[in-house]
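Morning. Coffee machine broken again, so started the prediction first thing and wrote up yesterday's gels while waiting. Chain of 106 residues, entered below exactly as on the submission form.
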Amino acid sequence: MIIEGARRLESCCKKIDYFNPATLLFLGIGTSIDALAVGLSFSFISANSYMPSITIGVVTFIISIVGMFLGDKLSCRFRQKSEILGGMILVGIGTKILVEHLGGLA
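Came back before lunch.
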């Protein structure tokens, strides 16, 4: 992400077809992996999971729709900076997890 953000983008305002089946498939897989982790967490705590599941689903749907439209409107203006920042955040998270697993942070 950092390298892509640092490159000069020629056609910044290229429109993305959000309803393309391939796009929907990959977004669905990513969302499903996250939902699987949450579902497993609920099963471990043995709590009633119906209301939290409905709440999480509704909130995720609303935030996803808002994010899709905001991303479409703001992508040309902040694309390079957000890709660099996102890459730096991912590197930071990965470094923190590595240090924790190596026993560096308690």
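The helical segments are 2-6, 21-45, 50-101. Going to sketch it on the whiteboard this afternoon.
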